[in-house]
Specification:
It comes from Pokkaliibacter plantistimulans. It catalyses: L-cysteine + L-glutamate + ATP = gamma-L-glutamyl-L-cysteine + ADP + phosphate + H(+). InterPro entries: Gln_synth/guanido_kin_cat_dom, Glu_cys_ligase, Glut_cys_ligase. Pathway: Sulfur metabolism; glutathione biosynthesis; glutathione from L-cysteine and L-glutamate: step 1/2. The structure is a single chain. The protein is of the alpha+beta class and 521 residues long. It has a single domain (3-158, 188-320, 327-520), classed as 2-Layer Sandwich (Creatine Kinase, Chain A, domain 2), CATH 3.30.590.20. It is built from 18 helices and 14 strands. The protein has helices spanning 3-14, 78-93, 125-141, 159-169, 175-193, 195-201, 245-248, 257-268, 273-278, 316-323, 345-360, 368-384, 401-423, 427-440, 446-457, 461-477, 483-506, 511-520, and strands at residues 25-35, 59-61, 67-71, 100-101, 151-156, 206-208, 220-223, 226-228, 281-282, 285-286, 304-307, 327-333, 391-394, 397-400. Strands 1, 2, 3, 4, 5, 11 and 12 form a 7-stranded antiparallel beta sheet that branches. Strands 6-8-7 form a 3-stranded antiparallel beta sheet, with no helix packed on it. The radius of gyration is 23 Å and the shape is globular. The model has no long low-confidence stretch (mean pLDDT 94).
Length: 521
């Protein structure tokens, strides 16, 4: 076990400071494709009864008009998050008619680029800007990869914790500076260790053959409609999806807030020849927001992001620069098709222990050589993670997935014990024990279970996932209704439509002028 981790856990206990961990908050953002009864991508607009996708805080859309996104507030307990997310699905299903929400991360059958409707956000300048940004993604990466769905895990420590953290570490600076430095320590260690999350929770070893124009990634043919990585964990996180030459050339630095902001800002102000060739406004129609490597901050695909709630009309990078990191967003989690909302309270408790571990364990800046090693290990786990012969590249040589993972879990268990001492019971330690079993027996992983189910039913990926989606629809429709929350969601939906109308009425400048002003300031 890390000596520094031991020292810090002991310090927290001896100073009665571990109580601050009770203030940890977590929330979810969960994406899901709307599909028709035959499992084809919906071409219906976002249901008006669900409010405005532009202004609703809990139900919106991501890339496609058919790609719904459900967002919870941050809560003190996983059970509160689960309840809110379940009720969001319950509410949505009241207005989806015969459609279902796709239960997996990799998409349903796709009939090509023209089969995927880009999300629309009304006639306000900011709404049109969001759609133009998505058109830019289509030109840059293609629409197909934008249909991949996932779960984002938002996590934060209470403000009181950072005062304790400063006393424990001796870091100098304001609370804002200490908090940002702490979150970037967490992020650096997350990037070192998140391969374990891909192994434990990866649930996308199969994909519809319609996703790929040609099988140039060496996937095995399961049947005439399905491709698989037999020992793979998460094709969602592989190079068959989020792969792009422009972004792969970036060297976004996660060592400190200033370097992170600077490197992202550079990408947002550096033209890229291939994007220049696409053009910005052609024959009166916008193709993209600009010709830079990144149109806006969110275009950068990463497994974790530092986040700060923005004020009206404020850019995310400006918010980070001015007020520092507020929370982190974990973006590498697959939707587990065996769970109604794709994740459960046990996994959330494991995530909490894992993220506290990432903050407290040994740390140092990540140099280019280590960054390359981490990227190499990630690719191995994504494509061959359940291969018992697989070896990762460690600091001291080659090491098996099971050995490397168990070393980490032994340390995460110590963090889980501290959390359980505060929360009561053994739920965090139980979660770690359950995940440890997956290292000893890869057949227990969600990725292995998916392939086992495909084998048992003799189904294609599309057929089996549609079955799971229908079962989940029945689950949500039979849930007891939280009348107070459902009434609140009706009100939010109505208010969001009014807010969109007000935005459209308040615009005082044309779109061209608005975009020019947005990117100059």
């Amino acid at each position: 076990m890390s000596a520094l981790l031991q020292q810090r856990l002991a310090w927290l206990r001896s100073h009665n400071a571990d109580k601050a961990l009770l203030g940890i908050r977590r929330g979810l953002e969960k994406e899901g494709l709307r599909v028709d009864p035959q499992g084809r991508l919906s071409h219906q607009g976002h249901p008006q009864a669900l409010g405005s996708a532009l202004t609703h805080g809990a139900i919106t859309t991501d890339y496609s008009e058919a790609l719904m996104e459900f967002i919870t507030p941050a809560y003190d307990s996983p059970e509160q998050v689960m309840h809110y997310m379940e009720q969001l699905h319950r509410f949505a299903y009241q207005h989806l008619q015969d459609e279902v929400v796709w239960a997996g991360s990799m998409p349903c059958y796709l009939a090509g680029e023209d089969d995927i409707p880009v999300a629309q956000y009304g006639e306000s300048n900011i709404g049109r800007m969001k759609s133009i940004y998505r058109e830019g993604l289509a030109y840059r990466y293609g629409k197909v990869m934008q249909t991949i769905a996932g779960i984002h895990y938002n996590f934060s420590f209470p403000d009181s914790f950072w005062t304790i953290y400063q006393q424990m570490t001796g870091i100098e600076g304001s609370t804002r500076e200490v908090r940002s430095e702490g979150y970037f320590r967490l992020i650096r260690n997350f990037r070192r260790h998140f391969w374990l999350l891909l192994y434990l929770f990866g649930a996308s070893p199969a994909v519809s053959s319609s996703f790929l124009k040609r099988n140039s990634f060496g996937l095995d043919v399961w049947d005439d409609r399905t491709l698989v990585a037999p020992a793979g964990t998460t094709l969602r996180m592989s190079d068959i999806g989020y792969s792009n030459n422009a972004q792969s050339s970036l060297n976004i630095c996660y060592n400190q807030l200033d370097s992170y902001v600077q490197s992202l800002s550079h990408a947002m102000h550096t033209p890229y020849p291939a994007y220049t060739h696409i053009g910005v406004k052609v024959e009166g129609e916008y193709r993209q927001l600009n010709t830079n490597i990144l149109q806006i901050e969110n275009e950068y695909y990463s497994e974790i992001r530092p986040k700060r709630t923005t004020r009206r009309a404020e850019k995310p990078l400006d918010a980070l620069r001015e007020r520092g990191v507020e929370y982190i967003e974990v973006r590498c989690l697959d939707i587990n098709p065996f769970l109604p909302i794709g994740i459960d309270a046990r996994q959330m408790r494991f995530m909490d222990a894992f993220l506290v571990f990432c903050l407290l364990v040994d740390d140092g800046d990540i140099d280019r050589l280590e960054c390359e090693r981490l990227a190499y290990n990630r690719k191995l786990v994504v494509r061959e993670g359940r291969n018992p012969e697989l070896r990762l590249v460690g600091e001291d040589g080659m090491i098996s997935v099971a050995s490397a993972g168990q070393r980490m879990l032994d340390q995460i268990m110590q963090v889980a014990q501290v959390l359980d001492e505060q929360y009561g019971g053994t739920a965090h330690m139980d979660a770690v024990v359950q995940e440890s079993a997956k290292l000893l027996d890869p057949s227990l992983t969600p990725s292995a279970q998916v392939l086992r189910e495909l084998q048992a039913c003799g189904c294609s990926y599309e057929e089996w996932m549609l079955q799971q989606s229908r079962q989940q629809r029945e689950y949500f429709q039979q849930l007891p209704v939280d009348q107070q929350m459902q009434a609140s969601l009706v009100q939010q939906s109505q208010q969001s439509l009014q807010q969109q109308r007000e935005l459209e009425e308040q615009d005082k400048m044309g779109l061209d002028e608005f975009l020019q002003h947005y990117f100059v300031n």
